[in-house]
Amino acid sequence: VNIKELLNKLTTEEKIGQLLQIAPFFFVKEAEIEVQGEVKDLYLSSKKIFLSGSVLGIRNAEEMIKIQKLYLERSKHQIPLLFMADIIHGYETIFPVPLALSCSWNPKLAYDMARISAVEAQTSGIHVTFSPMADLSRDPRWGRVVEGFGEDPELIKAFVEQMVYGYQQKNVKDEGNIASCVKHFAAYGAIEGGRDYNTVDLSRLSLYQTYLPGYKAAIDAGAKLIMTSFNVVDGIPATINKHLLRDILRDQWKFEGVTISDYDSLHQVVDHGCAAGDEEASLLGIQAGLDIEMASSCYVRYLAKQIEDHEVEIGLLDEAVGRVLTLKEELGLFDNPYKGASIEKELVLVRSKEHLEASKKIALESAVLLQNNGALPLNRKLKVALIGPYSKLKTTNGPWSWHGNNDLNHSLESTLISGGVDLIYVSSAENESELNANDSNELEKADLVIVAIGESIRESGEAHSKSMLDIPRNQASLVRLAKKMKKQVVVVLYNGRPLCLDTILEADSILETWFLGSMANEAIALLLTGKKSPSGKLTMSFPRNVGQIPVYYNHLTTGRPKVEGHYNEYVSYYLDVENSPLFPFGHGLSYATFTYEGLTVSKEKMNPSEQMTVSIRVKNNSEIEALEIIQLYRRDYVSKIAKPVKELKQFKKEHFKPFEEKTISFELSIKDLTYINDTGENVYEYGKFQIMVGPSSIDTQNIDIVLIKED
Ligand code: BGC
Asked: Who lines ligand 1 at CB under 6 A?
């Protein structure tokens, strides 16, 4: 289809329709005016509904085919609807939540997950997924940290990039591929107090250095769409923020794809107090460069008049509509409006055995062993009891998995039993007060107690912020009880954010499993029994208490840094808690024991066009086969702008056979030594840098190198 010619044939009203995204029920009910709640306020006539350009969320192929058919029957120009949905960590085969996935430090797994998600989602006629979420956050109170990839820009970049490749592959037109919409632009994760939808107030420097790289990586990887965020940036709601949508996105990053608002966020500009009503919101949106309006109707109701009155140039509308039509063309929808949607294929492909196996493999790499005083892997000779609500719960899919079905998952109880663990006693009581004398008698017979506890799946995700991060509902009392009874205690945690774990530290072992998806407990059983070794490492710091937040590894030194071992009252610290987190970024244990020795560099000095090799010997000192994540950080000692004490620059995940020793090498180039300044440019300064390599952010070997001028 020639987009220009098509655009010329459309009336203004038809063009504006392309910028509207609404839910499927508008079409199916064919309501003249919608019936309930906020939706009613969209004031959409049937005519307007059948001019809209895209649909938000779809249940299955049957529903999609029905709506597309109904729509095309009425469509004068035969422009198909675009179907978009939130496929965040799997369609029906559910994978670990993104925060868990990032703990694998294996971006290739993100590719695999996105690929399977695309193949499954497409059978129901989904063309665009609102994923990946590239929002960096340093605040575990924010429920949406579960949807992101942690606190580090380099890791986020690596993961979102692979997600985009996985969804779209080389040619998004090919069957099995869907377009990726990166979100939420910009800095949604920097909300104050971790309270969802709250204010964001950032320096330009922090915006460019910390928060923007993730979105940019997705755009550079080819993401076809970007979604604006609910928050303000520099006091202007992101959805109408010209600086974000034009200066940065179009001018600096050369993005040519589609921008879309978040749910109702164009209308919410009114609630932000930045527009007097929907009419002004429409004006501000189109001027700022917002293309599609999701779930509000400012454009549909006011834009035509604004164009007629010459308040808005028709060119702005044409640009936006042109981008939407181009996306439809790129997806191949003009040739095949039902692309991929197939009730038959849905039955075979979705939640297939192969997909579930892939999910299990990813889950195995995403769990993090936080603490282990020898209780894991389980000793076959011990009598094991299993207690806590998650002994029987199957809700391991986590937030944003609405096509998935938790009922199809297996509980920890059943996977442990089928994994050969002879459980002598099982109780799903939530805390000590729910146990009676008989329970205590049974527990008394055990040598080791597994305590499966955490947050419910409704305690993280969108609109699920918290001010307290303790393990809820006094579940920690189960750990205390078992310890009082002198049992070995293994805690298996299910949760969507870093929690304050001070109340369960007396446990011998703690396995952080987040929400690992459809095959969570199968993977957990393999890890607990030692058939596989845990290999995940944290991508977000675990605070000691809520008052420490934000606590993150790549902080600045400050002018009065606290130096461990040197007492000085007037330095940056708390009277009542250490500065360090409880479990730091990059931390995660294995059943194998690794030693790191002999960090070397191939030369001490290099100029910006040179490279150098950084090497370290890593040895597996055990008879256990395992994966290990080797992390490389850098510190820029002196520069015009204060620099973090360390910043992750490279990482590798390597497989080690029993007692195997390997030399791990990293090629260091100028890109590992640059920084982003407050206008978004990548710059460097000559001088001394520290290179740190090790198994976690607080356990590294260090060496200095110098960046020198070219001759
Ligand atoms: C969320 C987005 C999501 C959208 C559509 C919004 O409330 O913030 O992440 O893509 O809904 O479901």
From this structure: 56, 86, 130, 183, 262-263, 462
CA 271 – CA 256 distance, rounded (Å) = 30
The alpha carbon of 399 and the centre of ligand 1 are apart by a number of angstroms equal to 12
For residue 451, list its beta bridge partners: 387, 491
Atom 6 (ligand 1) nearest CA? 263
CA dist., res. 289 & res. 272, Å (int): 19
Distance CA 180, CA 295 (A): 19
d(CA 18, CA 37): 24
Residues 6+ apart with CB under 8 A from 624: 530, 533, 590, 591, 592, 658
Strands (E), 115-163: 128-129
The pLDDT score that the predictor gives to residue 711 is 83
In this predicted model, what pLDDT tens digit does every residue of 181-190 receive, in sequence order? Answer: 999 999 999 9
| Dihedral (CA of 188, 189, 195, 196) sign | positive
Check if the beta carbon of residue 596 is closer than 8 Å to that of residue 629: no
| Beta strand ranges found along 341-498 (DSSP E) | 368-372, 384-387, 423-427, 448-454, 488-494
The whole-number pLDDT of residue 26 equals: 86
Inter-residue contact 543 to 141 (CB < 8 Å): no
The pLDDT tens digits of the residues spanning 424-451 come to 999 999 999 999 999 999 999 999 999 9
Phi-psi region of 150 (alpha: psi -120 to 50; beta: other; left: phi over 0): left
Does residue 470 have an active-site annotation? no
pTM equals 0.97
Please state, in angstroms and rounded to a whole number, the distance separating the CA atoms of residues 469 and 548.
12
| Predicted confidence (pLDDT) per residue in 365-417, tens digit | 999 999 999 999 999 999 999 999 999 999 999 999 989 999 999 999 999 99
509 vs 62: CA distance, rounded Å: 48
Please say whether the beta carbons of 333 and 127 come within 8 A. yes
pLDDT tens-place string over residues 457-488 = 999 999 999 999 999 999 999 999 999 999 99
**Residue 115: enclosing H or E segment and its boundaries?**
helix 107-123
Q: φ, ψ for residue 135 (rounded to 5)? A: -75, 120
Judge residue 289's burial from the number of C-beta atoms within 10 Å of its C-beta, 0-12 exposed, 13-18 middle, 19 or more buried.
Answer: buried
| Residues 186/229, Cβ–Cβ less than 8 Å | yes
Which of the following is catalytic: 86, 135, 152, 262? 262
CA of 653 to the centre of ligand 1 (A): 33
What's the DSSP call for residue 151?
Answer: S
Exposure of 369 in the CB half-sphere (CA atoms within 13 A): 27
